[in-house]
Amino acid sequence: MNHSKVINTDYYVISDDFRLLDFNQNVKDRYKGIQRGDLCYQATMKRDTPCPHCPIAGNSQNDCPVYYDPFYRDWVEAIFSEIGDGKYAITCHPAHGDARSAFQRLKIDDFSLSGNFLQEYDSKNIGMIGGYCEEGFPLYYVNEQMIEMLGYDSRADLEEGISGKVVNTIHPDDLSQVTADLGDHYYVGMKYETTYRMPRKDGTWFWTVDRGEVIETADGRLAIISVCLDVTKEHEQQEARKRESDASASKERIFSDIIGALYSYNATVNLNTGKYSLLLGTGMEEFIGQFSQTDDYVDACDLLLSNVLPEYVDEMNRQFSLGALRSRQDHRGHIGQMEYAGVTADGIRWFEVNVFMGVDDEGTPIASVFGRDVTEIHMAQERKESELRAVAASAAKTAFLFNMSHDIRTPMNAIIGFTDLLKKHLDNRELAQNYIEKIETANDFLLSIINNVLEMARIESGKVYLDETANNVYVFWDELFALFDAQMKAKGIIFTREIRVDHPDVIVDKTKIREVLLNIVSNAVKYTPSGGNVTMTVTELPSDCPGCVVYQTVIEDTGIGISEDFLPHIFEEFTRERTSTESQVAGTGLGMPIVKKLIELMHGSIDVESELGKGTKFTLTLSHRIADASDISRDGEHSGEYCMEDFAGKRILMAEDNDLNAEIAMTILEEEGFLIERAEDGIICVDMIEKAESDYYDLVLMDIQMPNMDGYKATQIIRRLPDEQKANIPIVAMTANAFEEDRKKALRVGMNGHIAKPIQIGILKNTLGDVFSNRKMGDI
Description:
Blueprint: E1 10-15, E2 20-23, H1 25-30, H2 40-45, E3 66-69, E4 74-84, E5 87-94, H3 98-106, H4 117-121, E6 127-132, E7 139-142, H5 144-149, H6 155-161, H7 175-182, E8 191-199, E9 205-216, E10 222-230, H8 232-243, H9 251-254, H10 257-260, E11 265-270, E12 276-280, H11 285-291, H12 297-305, H13 310-320, H14 322-326, E13 333-344, E14 347-359, E15 365-373, H15 375-424, H16 429-460, E16 469-472, H17 473-491, E17 494-500, E18 505-508, H18 510-527, E19 533-541, E20 548-557, H19 580-583, H20 591-601, E21 605-611, E22 615-626, H21 629-634, E23 651-655, H22 659-671, E24 675-679, H23 682-691, E25 699-702, H24 711-719, H25 724-727, E26 731-735, H26 740-748, E27 753-756, H27 761-772
Parallel strand pairs: 17-19, 23-24, 23-25, 25-26, 26-27
Antiparallel strand pairs: 1-2, 1-5, 3-4, 4-5, 6-7, 6-10, 8-9, 9-10, 11-12, 11-15, 13-14, 14-15, 16-18, 18-22, 19-20, 20-22, 21-22
Helix pairs in contact: 15-16, 16-20, 17-18, 18-20, 23-24
């Protein structure tokens, strides 16, 4: 490809640490003694720091800045292009337009602002403004021309409009750049130059080149005096040149070395014939074998698309097919860009494609398709986004734990405090009983906090499964209502419920439905003041699924409501609108995220409406299979209360490594008439059964996590004992492994039941009653 020489143009290639890697003869002639490896700003601008207009240094958002160069003694336009591997190509040439003549008029390249500065320049048609070198730069001076340029009627009008601060004459987006150009140390005689937007009174903006000097005022204070020139026209012209950069009718402008250096390959397409030529960069040899077989652009596109991931094919056809290019052949310059992923010899890689339109030397319409491998950039961005997500998640969890800390300490404080009081008043039965009840309440709340945290962790790990059985909606709601009846009556809350269903017997996971509704109803009770209302309505809706129904449950209260800001975040993990100190209501802040996760697990939906100070409305929609007679019969048996006297004298072997847990359980059971022996781990438990008579032990209470041998392994060994009576001894897990999957695992290895720690006496009694009545816990 032939390229015409650009007169009086400098070309550079520099690294991201500002080292000169290469330059053309113009640069050598202009800057005597310049060497590769020099710092660009030292070798060319004689500066100790990067230039204030340099986008590589982050000093400018514009990759085509215009600035005044003392070596050119003129305005210069620079084009910065990233070419990969931390390298940049830069081309510099004199700017055009009125900027040059404006600076010549002002002699801005050699004038001094010292001495009688105000008297010398105030009479000229130049905007001038000054501010004291103090916070916000309080207004010190402004001339009539600047007042007029800014659209004000008088100095007083201007001073009111900018609140007396010169800093308010700078566009907020430009303020950091101006601050960097001025620096943070002011002294008499300091000079500066900066470019930014200034606001007019009517809300419009104009671009200004501001050159100024620090002076000492009559009262001994330092002030900045600025000469401001409106360069909006020049700036707009420069922006227009940027948009049309290298997009003229000349093929040389389209395929300049600067643009070409950015890309790995360049296909030049003749839009009349459909033929194309291909130029390849380093590392693109893979394309040679693939595309050198044809010079037909349509065939080449087919070859390329055969390796593109399917989700990008349609968009590439829409933008880059021959028909798409021909439909836009009258355009000039850049017409399209996209990223796509394709299969290469190195696996999946990402590419960026840009298309420019123009004509060649004969006036033939052509398109130039530039492509480059951006896999590393794409992966770096993904890593950055992943890191940001991780930081955000960590911050959210930290904030949650901070908020929840108070709620954890509240029941702990109650337990410790009332335990101390109980010790002092053991002789006062009535007072001691009151303390015990309060300790039990605190225990229950602390346990609910722990359960909620563990439940969320379990859901997140994907270890939650549905366990569906037949249930009657009327019985279910009677049981649920009974839990809140006394509490609502005590608060004076009016509770109304209505069930409108044709099929009351359905197959559901009762435990999870109950957990969802307990969270919602308990919140309604907590946050509804005395005299308020809580309403529940269950309505059966038609279902598209044969043999199924849809239940829509609406729970509405007249409580304190949820703020508009927090409402979109109500189901997010580790978020709380208020701590319990602020709301005066105890809670972990995990209830609603758990509700959302469980509803999704059951393939349902939940919506919430709320208004602060007026109340909240939850709408749950779930589909259920209608229960038939066999379902109802199979699931109709339920555990009942047992008289422990019926089991008095039964001998239980307890496998428990923790002394405190063992003491509590043994004491409870001995008071009920059981005979208890203890094994400290699984090995001892198996050994004691093997050595005992066949009918010596009636049941084993088996901890799971024990040293030497865990409860699962001990159970499997017992079930394989040659003595059939010993092998079939009832075994009940009594463990801190408290979730549904733990219960199921216990049954799978051969246990007959499962009790979760901490031990609740009622559950322990009923479970033992079920087992001694030859009923597995898994069946109740």
